[in-house]
Amino acid sequence: MSDKALSAALSQGWELHSYSSSSPHGEPLHHSFLLRRSGQWKVLTVRKKYMGSGVVTTEMEV
Questions:
Q1: 1 and which of 9, 12, 14, 57 could share a cystine (Cβ 3.0–4.6 Å)?
Q2: Are 49 and 55 in contact (CB under 8 A)?
Q3: Alpha helix locations (H) across the chain?
Q4: What is residue 27's predicted lDDT score, i.e. its pLDDT?
């Protein structure tokens, strides 16, 4: 996904249901978004890259 992953998901009809952030063991801050659409749920996680610029995003169906 791109660095605009949340905007892209919202424009596709996903609704933001919940948000949290954490910084596990001194790593870069992780932002987690719980999204829903038509009875489907997924978690979108965004964090800064360890090296270089930009972000890393992951999606998980729940």
A1: 57
A2: yes
A3: 5-11
A4: 82
